Amino acid sequence: MWRVTWISGKFKPDGHFATVDGVRLHYHSYPAASGDQHAPVLVFLHGASGNAYDMRLAFLETLKGRYSLLFIDRPGLGFSESQSNGRSTPGEQAKVIAGLLEKLEVSNAIVVGHSLGGSVAAAIGLAASVRVRGLAFLAPVSHRWPGGVNWYYTLASMPLIGTLFCWTLTLPIAERLASCAITSVFSPDHPPENYLSEIRVPLLFRPEAFRANALNITSLKQAVTEQSKEYRTLVQPALIVTGTQDSVVWPSIHCEGLLTSLPDAELMVLDRAGHMPHHTHTQEIVRGLERLISRVMAGQGTDSRSERHLRALERA
Prior knowledge:
The chain is an alpha/beta fold.
């Protein structure tokens, strides 16, 4: 218990808060210094076991001032509250995040999602297709995969016993395994210097956050099984990024599945990159995002979205 109190005392939110459908969300917002007022806002969604500081660490220095940027703690992680009744599917998260975009009057967004955040990005594209003009998927989870998830996520997500597990064992175990887990997820690349401290990794070890993360992960497979049936209606221009050495998600399932389903997608394959390409191949991804922004802006004010939507419905 004292470690939980210490973590809560050491790490304080330094962004903004907004309440959407009873859920208090934490986010960082950076306006563009100048430029085209019609340029889209880049909205960044982190993956599992993370928070907004991960995507901010990767992209803020390069993109700050050039575009309007929004980095969001997904519900239950970072400093954002969990959704009620254990709701944790990409679709449920998308409703709240789309509500945040509406509250912030973001009507022209490109949503960039990493890993599990990619499934949430797709769900937002489906739920708020008028507001979301483009999508970028970085090493995404998007489709059903063989096998299950790690046992400790299954245990942590269980009623009653899961709560007990999160309040007694997850913090000391997770603190000891964190460095090895980070090394594994970055492999064959290496994490940035001071990565664990920069992303405030102990925030994940709090019992409520660990359980929220576990609920995200254990509900994901069934959720993307159903959600992927709708991907052909995602007519927004899209960028899909994968590394050839990603050992966390299977590019042959997720990225190739998205490329097959999405009507207007570009695939970027990064040779020998692992599961964290936004940190290890940032400049290549930024160039891909710039191409995506150009595609989105070229399509504004035309009938191309409506035409693509009709073609997508015909194929669905």
